Amino acid sequence: MKLRTVLMGAVASLTMAPAAFAERGSDGQLGLIMWQAPTTMHPYLSGGTKEVIASSLTLEPLAGYDAEGAMYPRLAAELPSLENGGISEDMTSVTWKLRDDVKWSDGTPFTADDVVFTANYCMDPEGGCSQLAKFEGITSIEAVDPQTVKITFNAPRPDPFSAFVGAQSPVLQKAQFADCTGANAPTCTDQNFNPVGTGPFRVTEFLTNDTISLEANPEYRDPAKPAFATVLVKGGGDAAGAARSVLETGEFDYAWNTQLAPDVIAGMEAAGRGKVSAAFGSLVERLHVNLTDPSPNLPAEERSTSQHPHPFMSDPAVRKALSMAIDRELLVEIGYGPAGKPTCNYVPAPAAWASDNTECMTQDIEGANALLDEAGWVKGGDGVREKDGVRLSILYQTSVNAVRQDFQALIKQWWSEIGVETELKTIDASVFFGSDAGSPDTLQKFYADVEMYADNFDGNNPAPYLAKHTCNKAPSPANQWQGEGTSRFCDPEYDRMVSELEGIIDADERAEMGRKMNDMLTKDSNAIIPLVYRGTASAHSNTLQGVQLNAWDSEIWNVADWSRAAE
């Protein structure tokens, strides 16, 4: 069986090529600038990439993905396989052997109890875990002994590497978070801002939406790493300022997410201090359509919830027309150049999972108008369509970013050509991608009709990413507004397919099912309207050694190997 061969052979332990270090902390301070400032160091309480990346400085999973998308062990001693007995013959369980040389940054031992605790923490129905899809189908998790964890699934799992694989689902310290489960999870401010970790650095100070200060973890398992004694993560500003601080002024060593027009980047690189690197993984810039009513006239606990369907986005013709009106080729040209590709897919990779869904590639204003005419949406004297007293008037929100504001302006114009009125709203990125359940402006709260952003999934298994859109994962007060199904898409058939996908063993059949699910979210329903398949792009100084941009995991996945080049 082909799958069996893959599981036995492809998960052999991968040895990372080490850099040569004089001693831990010998290279002084590492400066990282994240213009979308992290709001927490806890990836289970935020769906934002910025929190995942920041927390990866200190929190670690059992295994990760390297820059080529290959899995390698981190806190695990080896990758489970059929050959070594880590994957059961019936594929209903996976057993992880843990390293015996790992300590938490407070000096206490890392054990299987921490792994079990973390799983239960995320799976608590009152906790609002942002990574719940990673734990889909798990029926039990047990500590066989202090260095062994067994995870059991509700059906054969051909790819058991979801929970605790990649920076989105690291291990938490049980002792620190024991009193922070369920509804208490978001209230544990000190723990959420200052997690005890096993990674190369530990937090010394966290200032919300401002700076994070870290120091080398004295308990890190490699005594020669990290090369940097401290890390300063600076938040705020914008993408242009962040890129300039690395490429022109040299104030910082690394700038995350330099989402800028190609000509702007080229001008900054001309200073000769650094460069922007890009890598394609699974990142898609897209529109999410709110299928529920965000009206401020509703009680706060009922806005954007399934209690109230959206007054006009519930019409499939409206959603399809919005997609038809967009010129994706032009968006790529003005926003990303060679670092972007037009797409109609929510899941653009790996290739076997990418649907041949291309019908959105050609802009069709005439067709969009005809579709709305046929659906009974009639243009009024001001050119805005209405039906049964409901106007097609959209609030379209996204984070503050020059490229995104260019996209908003263009899309607003195109939508006006089909009789749709659009109000644009921009929100500070630290708030929009934040985790504050009390804020009205987070992407999860979604108090708008349409919103635009991008995220991706760890590794090369899109199944957990697709599982984010089951009915039970829509954000709501019941889950602290931390659900993953942003569009509030809910289809029992889709939920059934998610469950079925978990048990499909044949790789080709899994990919076929994944493509169908992608199409259900996109061209069949237009609950998600993909725009651009983006490369992950960040800037780094010429003096920084060891950087390997990673589009399959935390992009700073190997920060323990970074060092300062001699000038």
Briefly, what is this?
23% of the residues lie in helices and 20% in strands. The protein contains 15 helices and 21 strands.
Description:
This protein has 567 residues and is an alpha+beta fold. The chain is 23% helix and 20% strand. Strands 1, 7, 8, 9, 10, 11, 12, 16, 17, 18 and 19 form an 11-stranded mixed beta sheet that branches. Strands 4-6-5 form a 3-stranded antiparallel beta sheet, with helices on one face. Strands 13-14-15 form a 3-stranded antiparallel beta sheet, with no helix packed on it. Helix 14 runs antiparallel to helix 15 (507-521). The N and C termini lie far apart (54 Å). Mean pLDDT is 93; it is low at 1-21.
Largest sheet: 11 strands, mixed
Relative strand content? 15-25%
Range of helix content: 10-25%
How many helices? The count is 15
Strand runs, count: 21
User: What sort of overall outline do the alpha carbons produce when their principal axes are compared?
Assistant: globular
Average predicted local confidence, pLDDT? 93
Regions with little confidence, pLDDT below 50 for 5+ residues: 1-21
Structural class: alpha+beta
Termini separation comes to: 54 Å
Rg (CA only):
23 Å
Layout of strands and helices, then pairs:
Elements lengths: L1 H8 L19 E6 L14 H7 L7 E3 L5 E3 L19 E5 L14 H12 L14 E8 L2 E6 L20 H4 L11 H5 L7 E6 L4 E6 L13 E6 L3 H9 L6 E2 L6 H8 L4 E16 L26 H9 L3 H8 L4 E3 L22 H10 L3 E2 L5 E3 L2 E2 L1 E7 L2 H15 L4 E7 L1 H4 L17 E6 L7 H4 L25 H12 L3 H15 L6 E14 L2 E2 L17 E2 L3
Parallel strand pairs: 1-9, 1-10, 16-17, 16-18
Antiparallel strand pairs: 2-3, 4-6, 5-6, 7-8, 8-9, 10-19, 11-18, 11-19, 12-19, 13-14, 14-15, 20-21
Helix pairs in contact: 6-7, 8-10, 14-15
